[in-house]
Amino acid sequence: MTWGSLKSQIQNLGFAAESEMSQYSQSLIEASNYAMLEVATEIDPLVKKIAVSQYNPENLLTNQSNGYLLSDEPSFIAQSPAAYCFECDGTGTAYIKKDGTTLTTIPLSTTERAFKIYRGFITETGEITLEFTSNYLGIVRHIALYERVYGAALNDIPPLGEYTRHDIIALTAGIANGTFMSFTGKVQREADGETDEYADYLIEEHGIIAFKRDEEGQFIVFYNAYPDEITAQTTDNYALPIKPEAAKLIPLLAASRIWQDDDATKSAVYYNQYQIAKEAYTKIKKPNKTATWQNTKGYY
């Protein structure tokens, strides 16, 4: 269904003429976006997928996952690291030094009594020292001085924890009809030329998926996406990113929304028609029949 077709169907539902409809141009856009989002959220999700690569750079330090007291002023030395990363819960200061000269000063503070990730790039070569100091109790852990990283963004410097986190909201921002809404629960892993279903992951705060750090390869994350909003600049030939059968529900819900203030009776009629059509579509999409299955993979 195109934007032009949607407008035409809405006009046929409630307006005597196109001139009358033009008085509701902004309401038409808002109601159409509401209806399209409702369909994409509750009835027929807009499923997308994104590939997330995970390859861990070499940490020039060894056995640095355990915690150290900041007040003990721990220090770590590596030869020509390209980046640093560590987690800290406490107040103090970290220094990146070369030959006793401070290259970078990193203030450490947290107000939430939780570990915070600090990371950055090191441009100098030679023997580099990472030092910590504090007059207070605090812990630093998961300390890494990486030989190389995979890009010029801070997010290309991975934390050293058990899991590596990926922000799918950030990764999908700007993708046409592909901005992250929610996870579907389906993940695949590509490694050694094979693609398999993958279940050993964590879902954390909204939009964050975490894979075990020692699991390398390319992960295919399936997710439900937001449809792009219609605007005043949207052309009539723009195709709505909703399946054709599901898109048929949009005019009824949009018309109900448009008329809810000016004509409650008309609005109720269209909403009831929408509910009937929604129920019918849901039955077609998910037939009510008895079936048996056996889960042999440990996931579904």
Keyphrases for this structure?
3 domains; 300 residues; four-stranded antiparallel beta sheet; 7 helices; Jelly Rolls; alpha+beta; disordered C terminus
Strand order across the largest sheet:
1-15-11-12
CATH class of the largest domain: Mainly Beta
Overall morphology = elongated
Indicate how many domains the architecture comprises: 3
Name the poorly predicted regions: 288-300
Distance between the termini: 32 Å
Q: What's the arrangement of secondary structure elements?
A:
Layout: H1 3-14, H2 18-22, H3 25-43, E1 46-54, E2 68-69, E3 75-79, E4 83-90, E5 92-98, E6 101-108, E7 116-121, E8 127-133, E9 138-146, E10 163-167, H4 168-172, E11 179-191, E12 194-197, E13 201-203, E14 208-212, E15 217-226, H5 244-247, H6 250-259, H7 264-285
Antiparallel strand pairs: 1-15, 2-9, 3-8, 4-7, 4-9, 5-6, 5-8, 10-14, 11-12, 11-15, 13-14
Helix pairs in contact: 1-6, 3-6, 6-7
